[in-house]
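Hello Y.,

Per our agreement to keep a running log of every chain we model this quarter, I'm adding this entry. I've kept the format consistent with earlier entries: sequence first, then predicted structure.
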Amino acid sequence: MDNISILIGGKAGDGIDKSSLIIGHILAQLGYRVYIYRDYPSIIRGGHTFSIVRCCRDTIATHLDSVDVLLALNQDSLDLHKSRLNTGSLIVYDSTSVKSDKGTGIPIGLIIKESGAIDIMRNSCMIGAMCKALGIGKDILEDVFRKNISREIDLNLKVAFLGFDEAKESVRIEKLKQKALPLITGSEALGLGLIKTGLNAYISYPMTPSSGILHFLAGVSEKFSLKVIHPENEIGVMLMAAGFAYAGERTAVGTSGGGFCLMTEGFSLCGMAELPVVVLLGQRPGPSTGLPTYTGQTELNFALSAGQGEFTRFITAPGDAEEAYYWSGVSMNLAWKYQVPAIILCDKTLNEGTYSFDIESIREIDAGGPLLWDKAGIYQRYKNTRDGVSPLAFPSDKDAIVKVNSYEHDESGITTEDSHLTIAMQDKRLGKEKYLLKELEHYETVKVYGRKDASTALLFWGSNKGPCVEAGSKLGLRVVQPLVFSPFPSRRVKEALQGVKRIICVENNATGQMADFLKCRGINVDQRILKYDGRPFTPMELEQKL
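Predicted structure for the entry above:
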């Protein structure tokens, strides 16, 4: 079995998320590459929640519709996912709460009661039974449990082993001869990329799907000397971030579309005041609250036009954990080099997806320093240079008076309404885009997969990378991924599409926002495949639509 898909389901509060992660670690120990998809309602307890853990010999970034193993902790988990089962799929269920005429029933509820364990340990018992069914030894089960469970490990292991002993081996999963890779979420990858490039402060009001970044960075804040702050609302978040940037602290904020609405005036202030702030914008289906725990690509237009007035901004949309790590670091560096705000477009699929992470495959990134004042003459915060980038000084410098201004201003930061100065300063700010675009020539802003000479191209962005690369490659298509949207590398995209006679655009929104964006830049999309029910594409689903 080279490509295995395991679904574990229960109700919210059953520990399904933690269970799927432990299953992922077990499979990773065997040398497999792993991707985990989480599906849960926006309630604290009750309702149906499930995770799909997929493992493969090769790198993957998407789950499958069908499952080879179904682990059912309650009746819904069996009834709602019957259509996913293949011929020969394994079913393991808790016989004390699930009725089924197929599969292997394990009296998990009884085991928990007799062991004096708490109800949430039912998933440990289920994982033990799964290991026996797949021919995975107790040694690997114990090793993973001890590394990933911090409370009552001995009792968890006891019920896991009892579940193991109750099950029977149905198939033996092969151990691969390749290095085990660590598992991280997209949120963790984003946070690590920011840390790598000198993050000093992270400020956020919790809002799915970006909340995971806040939780992760708060958990490692002492190790990396980070200031992690949760203000009263998103307005406070953005203004506090602007203050940190003014003081010379590398700062990022996290939010979703509803929170970014509140941030846009402060975001525009950063554009006028030339303050480098990185925004992690977790998209979800909308408008308004939309589906708060599901996925979407609905904020491209918003990111491109957010904030009143006109100013240069950097926008990127990574598609997997490695790209999230790399481009979050690049965003921080470019924001500080050019003194512009930056946006990283992400979503639930990327943020909450768990990936095998291969850091050795990623181009090295370092924290590039900004242009600093040389202390010659009187300091001018907005000195009009050839590329629009003014030397920086910070309030702690006793030789400089550092004035930033949201009003139009002269080179010293003094408010002005003079027409000539207004034109000069606006040209200064907008002129940075040309130099930023030139610098992006050194980065891989567009990637091409699949059959690179094919006359039909599949064009996608962001977290659609996994299903598009798999389905497009299988069908012999040229698969093209733009990674940067502002400033947009039009020449690179057109080169990637050279010789293409038909372009199909795949997006998780209802209108085809990237397709419309490309049309304005002379790239005409022939057909659109759109999905906007809050669920990501899967390779088989996309293949059928293609």
